[in-house]
Predict the structure.
Amino acid sequence: MATSQKLNLSAFLRPVLNRKIRIIRTIVQLVIFGLLNGLMFGLPRLPILLPIEYPTGAAFSTVWNAFEALQYALSFWVFPYLAISIFVLFGAVVGKTTCGWACPFGLVQDLVSYIPTKKKKVSKPTNVSLGKIAIVIAGFVIAMAAIIGITYNRGEINKLAFGAGKDMPFSTLDPSSTLFASLYYYLKWGLVTDSFGAEIGQWRFMFILRLIIFVIVLILIAIYPRAYCRWICPTGAILGFFSKHSLLGIQRNPNRCVSGCNKCEQACPMQVPILSYDKNIKNKMCINCLECVEACDEGALKLTFRF
Amino acid sequence: MSARSRINLLFFLSIGIIFLIIAIVVPEQMGMYELISDFNDKSVKDFLSAYLNGFPHPWS
Ligand code: SF4
Ligand code: SF4
Ligand code: SF4
């Protein structure tokens, strides 16, 4: 009797135990999301930059978004030493671990991926090619911020010609700012002060464009897990540039990986071609989420410092 | 880790540390850092325009 109860219990707990890394990761993501919104609990704003997609101007944000700080400095014609050092140091030491464990928009994408829609994958070469879109976006935004900076350098007033994008061009459109800042402020100031119907007629082009982009990204990530991280996010693209040879990363033990079962690659949300690496997984898309480690029954994969 | 990866890593680490020191030491950079530290509700309104572009009646 006792044995059968034990069996029942272990059968009941098996799905939880099998997914314990993912559960721990989700808890860590939620706790960090709480800390990032620390103003809500009386924490102060901190002079800290993090390479994550969370708008600095979100109502309760405690830290700066490093990519916004980079644009902000450039748009005032100040070389962004601090923002670059944050990207380089995070990327070189912990790789894109912040993407897997701390970024609120990464958390949103993980939560959306739990929606039971039919998930699709693209081919490995397509995944790499689409990843270049993010690099182009990052390059374009940095160039734009530098042009604004040059304009500012010629006369402070000239900068105003760039309108709302004068300080941080990317933040005028990015879906993370739409979700965590724009929609919040709209609900706080827009909806509350007037009736919704009256407001709709006065919606302007950029606000609608923001919402359209946000909905498109939402649909995209519901079909292709972490699609925004893989193909669009400039923060991820810049971090990826420095994370390829990061100190902390995934290592594969070829002696243990005898079956070549491919479960790790199937589980990887970033579609990293894990088996194409002999030992160290040196891929700029890897976010150290440990989904592959959890999927490998042979214990052939581990997260480790690899110097 | 291969020698190439190690060189790459050490190069990035040194760049990161040098840039961090410059950001803390150079006066112009300190100004930007102070601005980042002082970022508060007073300065937030202008800064928010990036998120509220096209936003109907933000402060009405
Ligand atoms: S790549 Fe994804 S997880 Fe990383 S900063 Fe961008 S949105 Fe966040
Ligand atoms: S290789 Fe492993 S740790 Fe890296 S993104 Fe894929 S599943 Fe996550
Ligand atoms: S899941 Fe483990 S055993 Fe299977 S292919 Fe991947 S590393 Fe090898």
Q: What stands out?
A: Residues A 250, 267-268, 270, 272, 274, 281, 286-292 surround iron/sulfur cluster (ligand 2) (CB under 6 Å). Chain A has 14 helices and four strands. Residues 204 and 210 of chain A are 10 Å apart (CA to CA). Residues 14-243 of chain A form one domain.
